[in-house]
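W.,

You were right to be curious about this one. When I first looked at the sequence I had no strong expectations either way, so I just let the prediction run and decided to look at it fresh. Below is the sequence, 242 residues in total, followed by the output.
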Amino acid sequence: MTIDPAQDAFFTLHRDLPREGPGVADDVAWAASLLDLPANARLADVACGPGADIAALLDAAPLGHVTALDKTAHFVQAARDVWHDDPRVTVLRADMAAIANDFHMIWCAGAVYFMGIEAALAAWRKSVKKGGVIAFSEACWFTDAPSDRAKAFWNKSNPAMTDTAGITAQIAAAGYEIIGQRRLPDAAWEAYYTPLEARITLLREGADDALNKVLDEAVDEIECWRGHRKEFGYLLSVVRPL
């Protein structure tokens, strides 16, 4: 099998990071606070990455169970390495489009865009218990006039990115009501970018052309957010099927 140097470089950078996108435990706690979760709730962590949100999900339902899934093998292994001896957690290598069972809350941090909001909500509807919710964060414009720098970055990485009204319209089109929405705080971004910066520094010496390109792109991403953080971010939405 031929190894794609660009993909290999990307995973070299992202291996061993504590999380794969912006987020803090308070995001999960806030989402869970909007519904009356039983202590033994069944929760799903869809596209879980290395499992950064599993502990917060267990805090929300300490007698419950978290089914965490991701399709990337080394992320799955990283999560299993931490949670393999906890009977409250099952980590699966699986496609986010094909989740099974039913859950009080389906949590998806920053990964819905792989499917699209309407497609994801339609696919997961069958797995939401009566009265349950889906909580997801999605990249979002917070201004009607973003800078050229911000537009250039997001047009490349997420050309379908919209604003709060656009996300709200897609939720409604999928047949869901909004229980609550809020922006992820700056602390959520720093929780991702601070370890990423340390990883970039560690890898820079001796990096080949492919890895240097990935490192440069990551630096550009971080600088774009730090310089234009008021223009965009992640919108966390907690929604329920109608």
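Here's what jumped out at me. The chain has a mean pLDDT of 95. And, maybe more interesting for your project: Residues 117 and 192 are 23 Å apart (CA to CA).

Coffee later to discuss?

I.
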